[in-house]
Amino acid sequence: MHLREGTLDDIPHVADIGCEALWNDEIVQYLAPNRADYPRSHRDNYLYRTKKRFFAGDRLIVAVTDDKDDAWTRKEEVAAFAFWSDTKGTSKPQSLPTSVLGNGENMSQRKQQMVDRFRI
Prior knowledge:
Strand order of the largest sheet: 1-2-3
Order of helices and strands: EHHHEEHH
Shape: globular
Number of helices: 5
Number of domains: 1
Strand content: 5-15%
Radius of gyration: 16 Å
């Protein structure tokens, strides 16, 4: 398993993980008491919030499976994620070392390329 910057293609998997992991959370039970009756709507809400954070500039890091894992299916799968937010507006986008995230590209540049690619 290794870490890398999250991409637009990871967003549905991140939403699935978040929805499943927090299904029985007390706050989620309070905010979405009918989630069992409308599970698709509940999952769509996670998808919306994940996209919103991604395009707002929050940094998405995903843990993905690789050939060193026992359960390797010959396909990279998102196993976990984390978002980082700059709550004070003082930090600038930065690259993490190649040893941590693969190629170490500047995330703001990658996000802009994805936004340009999917702009309607």
